[in-house]
Amino acid sequence: MALRIVAFAAVALAAVSLEARAIETVDSSIDAVTVYPQGARVTRVARVRLAKGPNRIALNGLPGGISLPGVQVDSTSGNVEVRSVEIDLVPQRDAYNAEIGRLANEITELQHRIAAIDDDIATAELQLEFLKGIANDSAGAERLRAAGGQADIGSWRQALDMLHEGAAKARSRIREAHIDRRQLEGSLSVLERQLHDLRGRNPASARLSVLLHADAALDTDIRVHYLQSNAGWDSGYSAYLDTRGNVLRLTHEARVRQGTEEEWRDVQLVLSTSNPSGRMKAPEQDSRFLDVYDPVPWADSEERMLSRAMAMGEDLSATDSAARADTRRVRNSRTVSYSPLERASISNSADQAHTVPLTEYTNRAALVTRITPRQSAEAFLTARISNDSDLPLVAGTMRVFIDGAYVGRSTFPELLPGAETVLPMGPDRKIDVLAIDQGGEKGSQGILSSRTTELTDFLFEIVNRHSTRTAIEVLDYYPVSRDERIEVTVPRGATPPESKDFEERPGVIAWRKQLEPGENWRIVHQYEVSYPGNTVLAAQR
Fold first, then answer.
1. Does residue 194 fall inside a structural domain?
2. How do residues 428-437 score in pLDDT, each as one tens digit?
3. What is the pLDDT of residue 315?
4. What is the CA radius of gyration of the chain?
5. Strand 218-228, strand 40-50: pairing
6. SS (HEC) of 290-309
7. Which domain, by its residues, includes 512?
8. What is the model's pTM?
9. DSSP class per residue in 6-60
10. Residue 330: predicted pLDDT
11. What is the average pLDDT score of the chain?
12. What is the spatial distance between Cα 133 and Cα 142, in angstroms, rounded to a whole number?
């Protein structure tokens, strides 16, 4: 009987010991943060002393927004196994006051206004899609009408004006809405920070309970990794061009922002181009089916709205793609991580960005002044460089300095190892540009089959005001015919270009020359377009 009592006491003592270890709370601190373009992975470290066998520890004060699928726990020791992880929310006990209520109401109102702006943007984008659909669907029918000799030129022009006006209004609404949204987001961030400071701490925090198993008694570091969505980084560059030595020094820096529930103090920062929140597999491809139908006569009102659909459809597609280009980020399959040598501290103010220097590159640059005289009387300096490093350079904004002087802001494209790009360096004010329209002629020829001819005749004059030889590149175009009835010819007196289909753009031509100081370069740009006299010539982009 005494033996049973002793055995029962030993089991009870072991249970009490395990239960004591189960409620042990340890302190943790943020040691490292990996920041992605959208989101961040935070690593907390806690130093613990473990007994042999099962151990349960608790970590308090983690952000209330974390979820179990995004949490990972590990140990720096290979003799420790993580058996289970649990998360409990600890509610905010601090009482709300009138000021907290006022801020909360203002935040809610701003959130509603931002949601209304998002609805307006979606509606305007739907209108653009509707106009594009009208244009694309009616293109085939319009061709049939023109081939049958039933084209109404007046209706074409009226429809073109109507579609252009509708698309322009929709794009204007989208631009204005984005501006309003950014202003409201700035006000919302300020109010959220005021509310955070007034409460003193967050409405809820998370308590992490971890069951560990140690092969032997030891001291080790336990690391807790979790994801945060309200953070990110983007690239910024400063380009310092030395025009005497044709050298471009490029400094690359990261702008890190975060509005999470905690500050990152003295952390090891890693900046990654990976996107853990992005798509993990290719989109599914649906089937596509074709059918034919007999065209039906259009009503007069439909003719006025839908004629010239083919030309307008291409215009809408081109401009809409350009309008979205600013909001779409295209990433390749390569992932790059930057690890600054020094530890950093990042405040959790979403409207403030912290700049982190990354690396510096020095490149030989081929300098060319580029001119498009029929579009602008300004000349623009460009610098062609190649990425000689073994890492891709991510896209970002770029500040431009020429010979120590700040000249403006531009963009730096994504550049893979070994690839080349042409960087815009701003206006070259020592190159004079003059485009003279010498009065192109329009006439007709033929008796049985009349044809209309139109001659374009320009004289370009380029003068180098630099004290050194300067490479000049002048761009223009020969129109490209999409109809075999349209003929484009170049008179013998025109100055032949050095290249055609410049940068694989059909019809775009380039003249190139090294201009000596004070030299005046004259380019005669001529071309003649001939087409049937009973048709109307339409120029499209």
1. no
2. 999 999 999 9
3. 41
4. 34
5. antiparallel
6. CCCCCCCCCCHHHHHHHCCH
7. 432-532
8. 0.61
9. HHHHHHHHHHHHHHHHHTEEE--EEEEEEE-SS-EEEEEEEEEEE-SEEEEEEEE
10. 33
11. 80
12. 14
